[in-house]
Amino acid sequence: MTAKSKSEAKKLAKAYSYNKEYADVPVYVIYCSWTEKYYVDTNGLIRLWEKLICYYVNGVYTSEK
């Protein structure tokens, strides 16, 4: 899923993390500097031009430093 803003991406990630299909699976919010969009995904692998913002597990927010 893609989002235009960080807050929209966080809302999507939190909603997905509450879904029973994603129980105990981290849902990551990733920012892409090329497309200037935020991505919500369960795959935490990021490329050089991307930055991991945060992730949610069962609705619990964890920020990346």
TrEMBL record:
KW DNA-binding (keyword) present: yes
Superkingdom classification of source: Bacteria
GO MF: DNA binding
Alphabetic keyword roster: DNA-binding
Name of the featured protein: DNA-binding protein
Species of provenance: Chryseobacterium pennae
